[in-house]
Amino acid sequence: MDISPMIFISMAMFAIGVVGVLAKRNALIFFLSIELMLNSANLLFVAFANLWGNQIGLVWVFFCVGSSCC
Amino acid sequence: MSAANFVPWILGAILIMSSLGVILVRNPVHASLSFLLTLLMLAALYLQLSAQFIAVMQVLIYAGAILVIFMFVIVLFQDAHQQIVRFPPKSVPLLLLVAGVSFLLALVFLGVRFTGFSTTRAGLPEDFGTAQSLGRVLYLDFFFPFEAVILLFLVALVGAFYIGKKGS
Q1: Could you tell me which of B102, B91, B131, B84 has the C-alpha nearest to residue A11?
Q2: What is the pLDDT of residues B124-133, one digit of tens each?
Q3: CB-closest option in A27, A32, A39 to B42
Q4: Which CATH number goes with the domain that contains A43?
Q5: Which of B49-63, B77-91, B105-119 has the lowest mean pLDDT?
Q6: Beta-bridge mates of residue B86
Q7: What residue numbers bound the domain in which A23 lies?
Q8: Per the structure, how many domains does chain A have?
Q9: CB contact under 8 A, A22 and B110
Q10: How far is B168 from chain A (nearest CA, A)?
Q11: What is the pLDDT of residues A1-54, one digit of tens each?
Q12: Which of B19, B92, B97 best probes binding to A when mutated, by most A CB atoms within 10 angstroms?
């Protein structure tokens, strides 16, 4: 699986999250935008874990989801 | 093979449109539902990258727990958050400028900083993305960060109790 679409998708998602945080009309939208940015980082972690064939990226996704849960 | 190459682009198009929906839709409930679609597409992308456990975890934790908490907050504080947390609107061209600049910065950063990384594909191990192999890495190599996450949850729990007690 080629990971270049994942990198593009992740960047676009992060930019959308940044705009959502800056354009906050509403505290809920603000938090959802932060979650969008975290999820774009997670996507990049999984993509590079897939590229390099190790599990460490997946473990960092686990930690990222855990801390965003809090 | 060519059909398989289109799948991430299609999923990504739906993902980007639904995440645009999160920030453009006025109603918070609709924004949450749009975020749900984003999460499901993200789980599908994880499945494409053969990370099965992460995909299932994504659906269970994000769609099952975090989004339900968001819904609870919307339902419980329906009139409160209308009055308290209203931010003044900002100008649209400025926001578009910020979006473009951050996207370009990401591109430049990717081009400048990450030119030296290896793009040769290491073969996936046999058990990539399964719960067993992930658990082995998590408990053997990343044990202390895992304990730190447990401590973080404990602090969040105590904080939630404290805030709840103070309110009543």
Answers
A1: B102
A2: 777 777 888 8
A3: A39
A4: 1.10.287.3510
A5: B77-91
A6: A26
A7: 4-69
A8: 1
A9: no
A10: 22
A11: 677 888 889 989 988 998 888 877 777 888 889 999 999 999 999 998 888 888
A12: B19
Q: Which residues of A touch B142 (CB under 8 A)?
A: 59, 63
Which residue from A minimizes the CA distance to B154? A70
Q: What is the distance in angstroms between the Cα of B112 and the nearest Cα belonging to chain A? A: 15
Query: Which among B47, B49, B61, B69 is the top mutation candidate for probing chain A, defined by the most A β-carbons within 10 Å of its own β-carbon?
Result: B49
Nearest to B102 by CA among A34, A5, A22, A42: A22
Q: How many CA atoms lie within 13 A of A39 on its CB side?
A: 34
Global confidence as pTM: 0.81
Does CATH number 1.20.120.1200 belong to domain B1-99?
Answer: yes
Q: Please count the other Cβ atoms lying within 10 Å of the Cβ belonging to residue B122.
A: 11
Neighbouring residues of B26: CB distance < 8 A, sequence distance ≥ 6? A25
- CA dist., res. A36 & res. A15, Å (int): 9
A29 interaction partners in chain B (CB closer than 8 Å): 22-23, 28, 31
